[in-house]
Amino acid sequence: MLKGGGQRHIVLLLSNHKFQINLKFKLKYLKFKHMPQDPMKLFIDKLMAEAGLDNLPEDYRQEYENKLRQQVDQRIGLIAMGALDEQGMKDFEKLADSRPDSQALKDFFAKKIPNFGEKVRIGLAEFAQEFIAAAKK
Question: 63-116, pLDDT tens digit by residue?
Fold first, then answer.
């Protein structure tokens, strides 16, 4: 669905959590309704395309995507850890000792952090803007 306004909406479905990201840069307004199996890959592919990096040779592209995925994961981790209070940090340490899977981590953060989805949405939108601005320099 295309609309005016110069914004792009990306809906990330990470397990049972839905994050809608408003990226305000030179693209038309898009809303993705049907997500592939890996929404993070879609997010990264869109970032690379907007940054003009989508025509890299395949071996460089794969390496760049992997590094970008690590940066996105780190940003989500920083958002989550920065939003936990002291008790939440203690609870997280206990949880981390049990080597939780990604679903357990997502459930933990959603329970412990008010508006976690919104915080992730804002953080990823900021990350996208920073990445694209840096890539275009």
Answer: 999 999 999 989 998 999 999 999 999 999 999 899 888 888 889 999 999 999
Which of 136, 135, 92, 137 shows the shortest CA–CA distance to 112? 92
Tokens representing 58 are 């395949």
DSSP3 helix / strand / coil % (the chain, rounded to 5): 60, 15, 25
Secondary structure class of 103 (helix, strand, coil): helix
Write the DSSP symbol of residue 51.
Answer: T
Neighbour count for residue 91 (Cβ, 10 Å): 15
User: Residues 6 or more apart from 124 whose CB is under 8 A from it?
Assistant: 12, 19, 21, 43, 72, 75, 76
The rounded radius of gyration (Å) of the Cα atoms in the chain is: 16
Non-local (6+) Cβ contacts of 44 within 8 A are 65, 68, 69, 72
